[in-house]
Amino acid sequence: MSDIGLRPEGSTLVLWKGRDFAWNFELVDENKHPVDFPDGQMYFELQTGGEHNALQKVTVTGANGGTYKLGFGGQWTDPIDYNDVVENPQNLSGDITDALEALSTIGAGNVNVQPSSLYPTWELDINLEVGHVLTEQMVNTINATLNGFFATFEDLLGVDIDFTIHDNLNFVIKITSTKSFDEVGLITFATDITSTMIVNAFNAVASLVGVFDTIHLDFYWTHTYQVMFIGELGNDVQPALAVDDADLDGVNGYEDVSVTIVKPGKHPLTFWYFEIEDSLAHIKIESEETDKIADRCLWQLVFLPDGEPAGGEGIDAGRVSRVG
Predict the structure, then answer these.
(1) Which residue in 22, 26, 262, 297 is deepest, having the highest Cβ count within 10 Å?
(2) 142 burial class (0-12, 13-18, 19+ CB within 10 angstroms)?
(3) What is the distance between the alpha carbons of residues 65 and 80, in angstroms, rounded to a whole number?
(4) Could you tell me if residue 105 is left (phi over 0), alpha (psi between -120 and 50 degrees) or otherwise beta?
């Protein structure tokens, strides 16, 4: 069978384990004289596979009302109401989906906001009596006492406890249930925990009697949901959503919205770009990146002229050969 078009002979891209990859490429005419590259980009396109969608977690903590915004690609959503369940009464994620898809940088069908969960959270501001100092042993005793106290509430299924120590006499303890509640389930959640109950639990431990000057308790729901990029934004790396929580109402200044990247996303292709100056093209890839490329991975060397959105001209192709 004959070939139609140009078939590359099949070059080998040699990558050494633990070593950088560098290559200089000069464009010459039929007389071997250097000529300037046309405007555009030249790059290796490696078929690394392993594609997956980007997944991010949004956490709203310390809030009891107000609004916040999420940003992507330099655009901001309309304000997202912390308590708004009017349009989607069964789940806040519908409202958040609407807000994100309204951005032209995202668009309809390109995000999946996974169901929201709420975790009951208590903040304890504690001041010690003068003459007492917060020690590692006292922290361990307080931690064990609080775990034992909250374990008596079967609905919680245990708690996570975090200490923020301001100095030897003042610290904050954040206590969050390990069990989440959906927006409907939280209505049936009923537990009335007061500062007095916490003090009584501490006073039941001999080494903690008379240690505390004041204990102030605040309660709020920590609200979390996940955003997966799909559709046209799927199978690629996506930056973390930006946050504007200036209009969020909170408890004693605890209010905060944060975004963490659960999975960064991955494109099925890896691109290594050249730097082009006049007739010379240069590329240098650090060893941390070259070591990610598997042996016998397929690759193409492509030139994409300016003004052409995709495609480009194939220059060479072949497989990777790993050394070492």
Answers:
(1) 297
(2) buried
(3) 10
(4) alpha
Spatial CA neighbour of 269 closest among 232, 298, 229: 298
Q: For the chain, which residues make up each domain, given as ranges?
A: 11-49+269-323, 52-266
**Strand, helix or coil at 101?**
helix
Q: What CATH topology corresponds to 11-49+269-323?
A: Immunoglobulin-like (2.60.40)
Instruction: For residue 70, give the nearest of 111, 115, 121, 109 by alpha carbon.
Output: 111
Residue whose token pair is 């598997």: 294
Per-residue pLDDT of the chain (324 residues; tens, 9 = 90+): 456 666 666 789 999 999 999 999 899 999 999 999 999 999 999 999 989 999 999 999 988 889 999 999 999 999 998 876 444 444 567 789 999 999 999 999 999 998 778 888 899 999 999 889 888 999 999 999 999 999 888 777 789 999 999 888 899 999 998 888 765 565 556 567 888 888 899 989 999 998 999 999 888 888 889 999 999 999 999 999 999 999 999 877 889 999 999 999 999 999 999 999 999 999 999 999 999 999 999 999 999 999 888 889 999 999 999 998
- Angle (CA) 81 86 88, round 5°: 95
- For tokens 């903690």, the residue is 208
CA distance 31 to 108: 53
Neighbours of 128 (CB within 10 A): 18
Q: Cα dihedral sign for 163, 169, 170, 176?
A: positive
DSSP 8-state symbol, 104: T
Q: What stretches of the chain adopt beta strand conformation (E)?
A: 11-16, 21-26, 40-46, 55-61, 63-72, 75-76, 80-81, 111-128, 159-165, 170-177, 212-229, 242-244, 248-250, 256-263, 270-273, 275-277, 280-285, 298-305, 313-323
How many Å apart are CA 27 and CA 7, to the nearest integer? 21
Q: Residue 231: which of 105, 53, 98, 75 has the closest Cα?
A: 53
Q: Which structure tokens are listed for 195?
A: 């500062």
pTM of the model: 0.72
